[in-house]
Design a protein that fits this description.
Strand order of the largest sheet: 3-2-1-4-5-7-6-8
Mean pLDDT: 86
Order of helices and strands: HEEEHHEHEHEEE
Shape: globular
Radius of gyration: 16 Å
Largest sheet: 8 strands, mixed
Low-confidence stretches: 1-6, 14-27
Length: about 190
């Protein structure tokens, strides 16, 4: 019996990502002068951030502290100092969406920092034993109103480290670790 061509397989998803053209706009550089603003929402805590976190390459201390709290392990309300590279990945995603849609979008944060206890509880859902979430070097995100292919293409364009695609959950994982790609259908 022939395979169902409408069924999303790992091979089809990865080949599609490689073959699909990315947004025509060039990826912005974090080396750009000026302000870097983020518009974020954490659906687990119903908290928002809409502010400048860096100016001319210098991070704004008060803003990064608020971002550390927003990206905390919401299961136990424990925060860490997030890797500034993660904030820059969020900004690069935000800028790509802004160029593509001609408006600012809100990025939804599904997971930032995780304590070892929370990470262990999430292992049954696919969390890696040595996840970079434990070090504040990873974030799971989505953008409401935009499909997974659009999200995955933008994430692939800005990914400097790990990129995980979680198709059924409709989010992507970005981190500042070594460059790698993985795909989860659950």
């Amino acid at each position: 019996m022939p395979a169902d061509p409408s069924r999303m397989t790992r091979r089809r998803a990865l080949l599609g990502l490689a073959a699909l053209p990315f947004c025509a706009a060039a990826a912005p550089s974090v080396d750009q002068a000026g302000e870097r603003r983020l518009k974020l929402y954490n659906p687990h805590t119903d908290e928002r951030f809409d502010d400048v976190y860096a100016v001319d390459g210098a991070y704004v201390d008060d803003a990064t502290k608020r971002l550390d709290w927003l990206l905390r392990d919401h299961h136990v309300d424990v925060a860490t100092t997030m890797d500034p590279g993660v904030l820059d990945l969020l900004w690069l995603m935000s800028r790509r969406y802004q160029v593509a849609t001609k408006r600012r979008v809100t990025i939804n944060l599904h997971s930032g920092f995780r304590t070892p206890e929370t990470n262990e509880k999430l292992r049954s859902e696919g969390a890696a034993r040595n996840s970079l979430h434990l070090q504040g070097k990873a974030v799971d995100l989505s953008v409401q109103g935009y499909g997974m292919v659009f999200l995955a293409n933008h994430a692939r364009a800005v990914a400097s480290g790990g990129l995980g695609l979680y198709w059924r959950s409709d989010f992507v994982h970005l981190d500042t670790g070594p460059k790698r790609l993985w795909y989860k259908r659950f």
